[in-house]
Amino acid sequence: MQHAKAVDPGPDFRHVGVWIFDLDNTLYPADSGLFAQIEARMTLYVQTLLGLDADDARRVRQTYYREHGTTMNGLMRVHDVNPDDYLAFVHDIDLSALEHDTALAGALARLPGRRFVFTNGCRHHAGRVLERLGLAHLFEDLWDIRTIEFRPKPDPDSYRVVLARAAASATQGAMFDDSARNLAPAAALGLTTIWLRNNPAWTGIEFASATNQHIHYETTDLCAFLEGLRV
Ligand SMILES: [Mg+2]
Q1: What 3-state DSSP class applies to 106?
Q2: What's the gap in Å between 149 CA and the centre of ligand 1?
Q3: What's the gap in Å between 11 CA and the centre of ligand 1?
Q4: Span 145-194, pLDDT tens digits
Q5: Are the C-beta atoms of residues 28 and 117 closer than 8 Å to each other?
Q6: Whole-number pLDDT of residue 176
Q7: CATH classification of 36-90, choosing from 3.30.2000.10, 3.30.1490.20, 1.10.150.450, 1.10.10.10?
Q8: Ligand 1 mean position to 71 CA, how many Å?
Q9: CATH number of the 18-30+99-227 domain
Q10: 29 phi and psi, to 5 degrees?
Q11: How far is the CA of 154 from the centre of ligand 1 (A)?
Q12: How close is the Cα of 180 to the center of ligand 1, in Å?
């Protein structure tokens, strides 16, 4: 007589009622090339502002990313750049590579509780992207770089600001991000963390940490991961 094979119930997320998603390279795949367009616009902005060639502009951006959290924060602090001008410029991109993602919409809709987008980008860009993906109606709020008063992830204050805004406790939250370093403060606050391991190699300005204990789960396929959760 054959024993019935035990069905894997999947990761247990029954404690989660607040679902927090990064936008770029998290809610759409990195191979869409979308974020590469934004990165190219960031480099072009720095080139134009500082009169540099592309290689030198990329080096400046890496320095700002390391020392100020984002290219934009470096530009604001060092060169007094107007963030609205910068955000409008870098997000002026072609979204035609994105299509409605009905599978992901279904997987998100199944999650019990509240869903949010938490991005270091701007609300206007997030709204456009979510419309293209057919996901806009699934999120209660979009938290952008203005919401967090230009203190981008992984600044721990930004996480406290958004949790307070949602009147949510960290321990009921789960956070999904393709940037592993953004998950460290989330885990420290008590959120369950999921790393979308899909960064294209060229954005390799990710910083290795001594341990990966702040990453509770990792996946290369957000939709399949969500569908497999015990909720
Ligand atoms: Mg991202």
Answers
A1: helix
A2: 18
A3: 23
A4: 999 999 999 999 999 999 999 999 999 999 999 999 999 999 999 999 99
A5: no
A6: 98
A7: 1.10.150.450
A8: 14
A9: 3.40.50.1000
A10: -75, 145
A11: 12
A12: 9
